[in-house]
Amino acid sequence: MIRVENVTLRIGAKTLLDAVDLTCLPGSLTVIVGPNGAGKSTLLSVIAGDLEADAGRVALSGTPLARMSVRRLAQVRAVFPQGSEIRFGYPVEEVVAMGRAFRDLPVAEDARIVEREMTQAEILHMAHRNAQTLSGGEQARTTFARVAVQQTDVVLLDEPTAALDLRHQERVLAAARRMAAEGATVVAVLHDLNLAAAHADSIVLMQAGRIVAEGPPWQVLTEELVARVYRQDVCILPHPARDCPVVLTR
Amino acid sequence: MSEAGDTAFARPDRPAGRPADRRPLLAWAVAALFVATLMASVAVGAIPLSPSELAAALLSKLGPSEMTPDETLNAAIVWDLRLARSLMAVVVGASLATCGAAMQGLFGNPLADPGIVGVSSGASLGAMAVIILQISTFGIWTLPVGAFVAGTCTTFVIYALARPGVAGGDNSRLLLVGIAVNAIGGAVAGFLTYLATADQLQSLTFWSMGSLSTARWVTLAIVTPPAVVGIALLMRWSRPLDLLALGERQARHLGVDVKILRRKLIFVTALLVAAAVSFAGTIGFVGLVVPHLFRLMIGPGHRWLIPFSAGGGGLLVMLADMAARTLDPPNEVPIGVIMGALGGPFFLWMIWRGQGQGRGA
């Protein structure tokens, strides 16, 4: 469960987040969308505890962020960051296992969970490869597996699909939904409105540091609203196979 | 989740097992070389000892026995001069190599080395100041304390200017800061040289070139505790050190309090440099060469990298000191010259291999 109350964040004269309120419930996948510079990643960083808000409160699973140590935070939330890097040639398997390093979970389980999530992310066959030699997409899948093995109640994903091909975009969002189905509170920042529409329980549309709309895909993704926020005309149709909207540029 | 027709991806088999674990074999090899080198370094010198003479001299401390004048002399050479010196080489090498490994983890940069980055010159400046200004606040500990304090300050400054993640390309920035710090160190050293008396001048030359010739049991007893404590702490922190490879932000996401870890690492690396520099002067490149080679052989995990670096560093400095003593007897070639001759080309090779990005390993 994530509760964001009246969060404001300024850097210099610029207001990055302006009195944002947001509640995400356990068992749900919330997708934050919005044009460049809307404050999506900033909001995610505040929830993750990377950035401290100038005003307002953030609580994860009922505990205010300010009262959690770094170690405690790692028990509660996992973060898929934008732009992963690895500075030395650790094997993929070890990078994934780093997700468990400071998790207070039975160590005996570690190997099994790591293998399971590597299989999920389809990186098991490169378990012993030097993580520095991976392609962008393989790196992203490695990072996703690392986030998954952390097995936290709150999962924050910042553009997890940016580097991925079609198949792996679907797989990552399916995995995120599975985490939600198992009781986690999952929040993802996505650029692709169609991915958001297909997978989100709730879409949060942001613009200039504020939330302009929040609700199920059909409710938030309207031609009028998307056109206004993105300054781009669109058509919105029903998906031929799935029960969700499809957004096409006009 | 395995769909039909996509078996290659849906059920990826593990590649033919994990790569063979070279660590046990390598550990034995390093240990064997280590012991052989220790014996050789005690036997070799102005008065060379045969294996049987060496054995007799080593065993002479076990119990009172009749000794010929020759045997008494040999025992004195081995026990009063060479053994302490060889062990000092081990402590200095182990400290420098583990310090290098830890600094590379901290800076996320395989080119970080206490000498290149300037920590050694900062620490030896502290030691020089103690000598020239004749400070003796902490008795026999004044010298290492001076080196430690100056080393800590230097590392903080370097980290503040060249911490990983700061815009402007980590590698070049770190090296530029190193150049600046070394230049300042050189200037202050020059000024201290100007102030120094003839006697003090000799010990100053010794700092800048590095030498183990002043090693005695007393100095060994002084530097061993900080070295052992420092290496033990680094081994304890090997897991958070590994996670730092993901960058500060992600390490934090995974539960590493980076601020605290950074402070702890800066103190411990300064402690290790102080242990190395206090009585041996600046010996460069050990912290660069040794961790790099072991990273190539056993991978970057610090749980193994730290102990292997300790052993390998001790081995390398023992060998270099042996060379220093035997290349031009009865004179000694400064050990810094030997390490520079080895390390400089190695450094160039690393840069060439990393295409200037310093991405070794």
From TrEMBL, chain A:
Transmembrane segments: none annotated. One of its GO terms (molecular function) is ATP binding. SMART domains: AAA (SM00382). Pfam families: ABC_tran. Residues 2-233 form the ABC transporter domain. CDD domains: ABC_Iron-Siderophores_B12_Hemin. Keywords: ATP-binding, Nucleotide-binding, Translocase, Transport. Part of the ABC transporter complex HmuTUV involved in hemin import. Responsible for energy coupling to the transport system. Belongs to the ABC transporter superfamily. This is Heme ABC transporter ATP-binding protein. It comes from Mesobaculum littorinae.
